[in-house]
Amino acid sequence: MAKDHSAFPNEDSYDETYGSGDLSTILPKSDFPDAERDPRRIYAAVRDELMLDGNSRQNLATFCQTWEEPEIHQLMDDCIDKNMVDKDEYPQTAEIEARCVRMLADLWNAPDPGNGVGCSTTGSSEAAMLGGLAMKRRWEARRRAEGKPIDKPNLITGPVQICWHKFTRYWDIEHREIPMEDGRLLMTPEEVLARCDENTIGVVPTLGVTFTGEYEPVKAVSDALDDLQARTGLDVPIHVDGASGGFLAPFCAPDLEWDFRLPRVRSINTSGHKFGLAPLGVGWVLWREEQDLPEEMVFWVNYLGGNMRDIALNFSRPGGQIVCQYYNFLRLGRNGYRKIHGACYRSAAFLADEIGKMGPFEIVYDGNPEGGIPAVSWKMKDGAEPGFSLFDLADRLRVRGWQVPAYTLPANCEHQAIQRILVRNGVSFDLCSLLVDHMKDALAHFEAHPIQEPLSKHEASGFHH
Ligand SMILES: *Cc1c(COP(=O)(O)O)cnc(C)c1O
Predict the structure, then answer these.
(1) What is the pLDDT of residues 85-138, one digit of tens each?
(2) Which residues of the chain are in CATH 3.40.640.10 domains?
(3) What is the pLDDT of residues 376-420, one digit of tens each?
(4) Distance (Å, rounded) from C-alpha 123 to C-alpha 128?
(5) How many angstroms is it from 390 CA to the middle of ligand 1?
(6) 72-329: what fold?
(7) What pTM, to 2 d.p., does this model score?
(8) What is the enzyme's class at the highest EC level (predicted)?
């Protein structure tokens, strides 16, 4: 029977999705489209394309949150119109940001937490720029007062996250990065002292080094710098990159002295969207006291008839992440954070134990709460020739959707390949046990099908953070 077209005047206006005209063609990829299209169908097409990114929950490379409570999804939606820069138009969002700064000042043992000095940022990278710039300005002010030149500032770090490379390059600062050596993958007080001089604007230890997950020894470095000052008069401040550790150590290693308990620690950055458990797009930078934040970095803005600091590289910026950070502080408290991160540390310890027992691997960092973040890193045992590389293992685990990064270390350990698993909220103990099974499957696969030409770092996809 012939189709009665008159009963379906516009067939394409029905709900059906994948047979529609809109989706029966290749969608534009470069030319700016002319036509309007149906929102529901285009939503389906865009959402489908996102599938090809892989499953973020199985991405064990990222430090960032990939699971959030339903309430956070709801709050993000509620806050889609909040602009952090408009402190006068959204004064309550600004107030919430200020509360978070005070709570962090309390968490990090600032001398006067009720007057916490700091701000939210888009992440630790922007926070590092602001913390670094404050160090540079303080050093410049001191040098000017002494009538000395300010043309050769330098910054001392261990093997750092790329944001510090950006900071030193963008602001014309000599970067004295302490290279790794076999058997020493972190900064030490001796290596720091060997690089200090009158042009050193500061030292940046990292609480949770990107490459292995370990904490650098903030207190030992601080003590050594106290000693340096006593001997030479040089007063070199510390900024702690606590991107991960800033939200871990206070809960899981409370006796570790790394924060404002050490008078030499003048500023700290952290990523709210890492172990702060907020959704992507928030970091924090705090200064110890008001005098540590140079006044010329501050733009005072009106808010609720009062004044509030605006310290930021961005202008417009979404507010939802900050509201969610506040939600997390209220919702979890110290006990909730301790519980969640404690579960991650237990999973990391389990993984370290299992991976250590597999045979070919040597654990570099075992994910203990005093030593670093809930992560495990390992390398091939010296002399082991198991017939595959860590890059092959990463490649094989992708078959089951796992992203377990393998990469080579930075200078002077470029020859050393390493692999790392980051355990964060939502990487459950049970999922870890399945990953262990899949690693064993992979090893059995390589035994049955030895690799003739193991993958090198150049052929492997290079993802680490
Ligand atoms: C992730 C990370 C950064 C960068 O932080 P973002 O929040 O991604 O901008 C800086 N330093 C360390 C140690 C990190 O782990």
Answers:
(1) 988 899 999 999 999 999 999 999 999 999 999 999 999 999 999 999 999 999
(2) 72-329
(3) 999 999 988 899 999 999 999 999 999 999 999 999 999 999 999
(4) 9
(5) 24
(6) Aspartate Aminotransferase; domain 2 (3.40.640)
(7) 0.95
(8) lyase
| Contact indicator for 355, 376 with CB cutoff of 8 Å | yes
| CB atoms closer than 10 angstroms to residue 453 | 8
Q: Which of 59, 125, 209 has the most ligand 1 atoms within 8 A of CB, as the residue to mutate?
A: 125
Length of the chain: 465
CA-to-CA dists, residue 439 to 400, 427, 444, angstroms? 10, 16, 9
Pocket of ligand 1 (CB under 6 A): 63, 123-125, 161, 163, 206, 208, 210, 241, 243-244, 271, 283, 465
DSSP state of 18: T
Reading the block at residue 346, the tokens are 């237990």
Q: Is 428 left (phi over 0), alpha (psi -120 to 50) or beta?
A: beta
Helical segments of 233-317, H only: 249-252
What are the structure tokens assigned to 456, written together? 């090198």
Ligand 1 atom showing the smallest separation from residue 209 Cα: 13
